[in-house]
Amino acid sequence: MPEKLRTILVCQGTGCISGGAGQLQEALSAELTLQKLNAVAEIKHTGCHGFCQRGPLVVIEPEGIFYTKVTQNDVPDILHSLRPGAPLVERLLYYDTVINQPIKSFHDVPFYYKQQRLVLRNCGVINPENIDDYLDAGGYKALRKALAMKPEEIIKEVKDSGLRGLGGAGFPTGRKWEAASQSPGNVKYIICNGDEGDPGAFQDRSVLEGDPHSVIEGMIIAGYAIGAHHGYAYVRNEYPFAVHRLGVAIEQARQRGYLGKNILGSKFNFDVEIFQGAGAFVCGESTALVLSIEGKRGMPRSLPRPRTTEVGLWGKPTVLNNVKTYANIPLIINNGAAWFASRGTEKSKGTAIFSLTGKVVNSGLIEVVMGTRLREIIFDIGGGIPGGRAFKAVQTGGPSGGCLPAEMLNMPVDFDSLTSAGSMMGSGGMVVMDQDTCMVDIARYFLDFTQRESCGQCIPCRIGTKQMFDILDSIIKGRGKPGDIDLLLELGHSIKESSLCALGQSAPNPVLSTIRYFRDEYEAHIFEGHCPAGVCTHCL
Amino acid sequence: MSKLTINIDGKEVQAKSGDTILETALAAGKYIPHLCYCPGLKPEALCRLCLVEMADGELITSCRVPVVRGMVIKTKSPAIDRAVRPTVELLIKYHHERCAGCPASGHCELQTVMSHLKIDRKRVRRLRPPPAKRPIDVMNRCFDYDPNRCILCGICIRTCEAIHGESLLYYIGRGHETKVAFYGDEKKCETCLKCVERCPVGTLLAKNLIEAK
Amino acid sequence: MDANLIETGTKEILSTHGKGHNKLVPILLDIQESFGYLPENSVRQVSDFLNVRIGQVYSVASFYKRFQLTPIGKRRVTVCRGTACHIRGAPQIVTEIENTIHLKEGETSADLEYTLETVACIGCCALAPVITVNKAVYGAMTPRTAKELFNDSSRGDKNA
Ligand SMILES: Cc1cc2nc3c(=O)[nH]c(=O)nc-3n(C[C@H](O)[C@H](O)[C@H](O)COP(=O)(O)O)c2cc1C
Ligand code: SF4
Ligand code: FES
Q1: pLDDT digits (tens, 9 = 90+) for B109-166
Q2: In CATH, which of 1.10.238.10, 3.40.50.2300, 2.40.50.140, 3.40.30.10 is domain C75-153?
Q3: CB distance B184–C53 less than 8 Å?
Q4: Domain of B7: which CATH number?
Q5: Using CA atoms, how far apart are residues B104 and C99, in angstroms rounded to an integer?
Q6: Is the peptide bond before A508 cis (omega within 30 degrees of 0)?
Q7: Is residue B132 one of the residues assigned to a domain?
Q8: Residue A279 Cα to ligand 1 middle (Å)
Q9: What is residue C135's predicted lDDT score, i.e. its pLDDT?
């Protein structure tokens, strides 16, 4: 095949598909043939390019020309612009309001150049349904290298890298693998946690949709390191594209001998199976997830109990890691632990991936080095608050996290700083709120979520979150009572201290953090019957 | 079985290795609130009321932790109280029925917990009302199930499982709407009534008891 | 739905699955996908096939939000109540749709035309607020566009 001069990348992340990217790509193909440009350009569909707010996105390589909000009507103009000497389609370029100019290449768009896309390096660049694209980008090189290493060496490399699990708790990945590898038994399992139940988060989905092979490669290496031969990828049923692309990728990896028996002639066998979650946030919790794969109700098991690395799926030693944790593994094996550990802060290495959404100009999928300040993320990458409104708070960690006020904007983002401020890294949702967001309403929103998602087996979480929700609901409806703030604090403390699993133990965080930083808003609702943000209409 | 001693609230207490802290305390006449513990059944630590404080200040569920030689624990402390009391108050608020007239009154574990903690009715009153009452399930020919009294301790389910290998009673639903039901398997019930006997409150009631009332 | 159709449909689904207890959720997902709910007879077939008690099947099915025990409407309208959608106005959209198609959240119309439900997060947060009608996704909704979508019923059909 002759080298094409241009590649037209059409983003097919869930965001862009919802905006009509599927039809757009068909129209592009048809028009390409019609204009007899097939020799000049080829069309490639990719996973999420990240800038979902501006979707559907089209990128023309090698220049990186970046077209946003593209519709089928723009197709003729885009293709015309490929002809020698033809101008770019200026109306589709990203317009930078700071320099008051359109920007040609996405490399120069602030949303992108302030990021460090390591895990997301292939997302939006390769065709996730074509294994050759992944191979061309250096894929499965790490697997080859790993299979030539001893399992202990791999574990040491991962330990030395300082990688911490990106599923929320930040547990050191190398230590987890080491524990599982030392657990006795021939049958062990690898599980990839792609449950991503946090409302407001879509980064795991984007990785699965955009670069599924990197996750599979990470899982195979993990399997080799601990001596497991079977892996499960647990993906929510609400993510049809992720399930589909991961399925395609697994099939292709089998055909090429990266999965299956005697992988790359190494005598090592490993295969991956997809398991679809059926809609329960609590199944993200490790013991619940395991029960759910076994076909039971996903109800977490109380401490003290053996770790999943000793007694996991079907009672066998199991390593459970997040999607992004696995996607980091090929990077670490290829580049070495020192390379990885040179990024980030002392205790949080590597990068963090966030779904940046809410009242922010540039919504999308972003990746920054650990320790980046909140201000840089929200204002430099996110472009600040739309419509000249004032920033009020940023929520991280979803229903387990908290809301941080403007005073915290200079805080570096890493596992420990967020936790000490009363929030959490969580699995990576970051929702920006402005002056028109009512913090009591937000607290009520999250408690509504947890009381719906509580598995219901332990008393503090089951009826405690319900009661907290009822109190918050009456406050925003103008029926708050003078003792309510203290009551919320008392209940919150009790639920945190006594609940069985981390869902209950962190459920009060959104309430406690908003009372800590925005107590005056609660007081305004309760004592003055007034909602400062003007959201709670019953309160005016 | 070997003996060992642990320290409960400043007193040395004899314990059998393999026993849990809760079992040891109860055997020594030291009451710790509990609802989901049942002798002979695997502890699941669902009610979260049996919290005790370890020497390092950590709160643990005593029903699920085996004794270790030299353990020092407290069954009462401000930290325990702050963790447990609001839950008990909520349970009472969410318990629709009054004790008067309840066939379980007098041998109800919830009453024991309440009097042990000296629950203050004023603090219960400030809570928001519970969700609407749900209908009683006339489960099978021998007993009824009252979801409004159920604390979801799971003792009935675990009992059925322990006696018959697999439980006929199931959790149905999720969150605060969870209930216990046969859901299609009531005909297979052998009416040994062990589940009714072990219900710590007045949720599962034998029909003859209800009629007597 | 025709009882025979359900029986043969369920049989077909079962033939694609193995027998372990861990197949329960995948089988139920397929049945839910095919019929839009879990018909009683299907559940009975699953129970026989896997040798799992009926109560056990319902116990598991009632735990996961994806499963419905009653038939749903031809057009399944799902409003995302993810965080981003919430702060960009999802509650007002729910109200508007409730008023337009005269259903409350969680209800199905008597003629089985519509089901209205909410979902924790579809993951299209950048397009918030988002709703889906069957498989079609509509982003950046306002109460007005929501109303239009359901008044102009031909649009809902196209994506059925
Ligand atoms: C209620 C609850 C929900 C969770 N949801 C997720 C999730 O969606 N994805 C995830 O990777 N981890 C989730 N976790 C964390 C997992 O239990 C587990 O810590 C993680 O998957 C381990 O992977 P890591 O070490 O790579 O972070 C959740 C935990 C709890 C308690
Ligand atoms: S804390 Fe909540 S989710 Fe966790 S076990 Fe208890 S009831 Fe279930
Ligand atoms: S008795 Fe220990 S948690 Fe219920």
Answers
A1: 999 999 999 999 999 999 999 999 999 998 778 899 999 999 999 999 999 999 999 9
A2: 3.40.30.10
A3: yes
A4: 3.10.20.740
A5: 47
A6: no
A7: no
A8: 15
A9: 81
The answer to whether residue B135 is domain-embedded is no
Nearest-neighbour CA in chain A from B124: distance (Å)? 11
Question: pLDDT tens digits for B189-209?
Answer: 888 999 999 999 999 998 876
CA distance B123 to chain C (A): 33
Q: How many domains does chain B have?
A: 3
Mean pLDDT along residues A31-37 = 90
**At A93, phi and psi to the nearest 5?**
-70, 155
Distances (CA, A) of B142 to B108, B160, B189, B190: 20, 15, 10, 10
pLDDT above 70 covers what percent of chain A?
Answer: 99
- Residue A402 in contact with residue A395, Cβ under 8 Å? yes
Distance A399 CA to ligand 1 centre (A): 13
What's the CA-to-centroid distance between A185 and ligand 3, angstroms?
33
Work out whether strand A94-96 and strand A101-103 pair parallel, antiparallel, or are unpaired.
antiparallel
- C56–chain B Cβ distance below 8 A for any pair: yes
CB contact under 8 A, A202 and C123: yes
**Which listed CATH number (2.40.50.100, 1.20.1440.230, 3.40.50.300, 1.10.760.10) goes with A439-527?**
1.20.1440.230
Q: Closest ligand 1 atom, CA of A173?
A: 25
| Other CB atoms within 10 A of residue A137 CB | 15
In this complex, do C56 and B170 lie within 8 Å of one another by their Cβ atoms? Answer: yes
In terms of domains, do B88 and B65 share one?
Answer: no
Residue A499 near residue A539 (C-beta atoms within 8 A): no
Lowest mean pLDDT among A374-378, B40-44, B94-98: B94-98
Residues from chain C contacting residue A275 (CB–CB below 8 Å): 25-26
Domain enclosing residue B62, as ranges: 3-74
Whether C153 has a pLDDT exceeding 70, the answer reads no
Q: Rounded distance, CA A243 to CA A195, Å? A: 11
Concatenated DSSP letters of A184-250:
--S--EEEEEE----TT--HHHHHHHH-HHHHHHHHHHHHHHHT--EEEEEEETT-HHHHHHHHHHH
Are the C-beta atoms of C108 and C115 separated by less than 8 Å?
yes
Assess if residue B47 is contained within a domain: yes
Q: Which CATH number applies to A131-341? A: 3.40.50.11540
Q: Report whether residue A165 contacts ligand 1, using a CB cutoff of 6 Å.
A: yes
Ligand 3 geometric centre to CA of B109 (Å): 12
Helices then strands, each counted (H, E), chain C: 8, 4
Against a cut of 0.90, is the pTM above it? yes
Cβ–Cβ of B59/A498 closer than 8 Å? Answer: yes
Q: In this predicted model, what pLDDT tens digit does every residue of A304-337 receive, in sequence order?
A: 999 999 999 999 999 999 999 999 999 999 999 9
Tell me how far CA of residue A521 lies from CA of A82, A92, A475, in angstroms: 55, 42, 11
| Terminal alpha carbon distance of chain A | 69
Q: Is B48 in the pocket of ligand 3 (CB under 6 A)?
A: yes
Residues of B with CB below 8 A from C55's CB? Answer: 168-170, 181-185
Q: Do residues A190 and A322 make contact, with C-beta atoms less than 8 angstroms apart?
A: no
Interchain CB distance below 8 Å, C126 and A363:
yes
Size of interface A-B (CB pairs under 8 A): 112
Residue A293 has pLDDT above 80, yes or no: yes
Domain A6-107 part of CATH 3.30.70.260: no
- Cα distances (Å, whole numbers) of residue B70 to B3, B7, B64: 12, 7, 18
| Upstream peptide bond of A62 is cis (omega within 30 degrees of 0) | yes
Residues of B in contact with C59 (CB under 8 A): 170-172, 183
Which of B74, B92, B110 corresponds to the end of one domain? B74
Provide the CATH topology of domain A351-434. Ubiquitin-like (UB roll) (3.10.20)
